[in-house]
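Q: Got a minute? One more chain.
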Amino acid sequence: MTHKSTWAVLAMAVALSLSLSTCKDTKTLQENDQLKAKVAELQKENGQMGNDLETVTADRDALKKENAALKAQIKPRKAKKRTTSRKRRKSQTAREFQAQPLIWNARTRFLV
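A: Always. Here it is, folded:
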């Protein structure tokens, strides 16, 4: 009897271990399928982003050409001469001095 019960217990252990391993395999397969779906979605998004990048690059190049054409149409302006914003003012005594006629004093040899 012990011989039969030992084989029965062993058979039961093998059956349980196989059922547990199939359960783990099922979970692994489900996770694997989910990951494959996620990878496919990411690849699709990557392709779409690549197409968007090409479109934006083409638009940028067209705008650069248009900008260059518009710059070529603009006539270059002549550079303005810089004028000083400060005007020198003569002092009042200098103005009075210029208003009076210059008289030469021969004796002192100075201007009066």
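A: The mean pLDDT is 78.
Q: Perfect, thanks.
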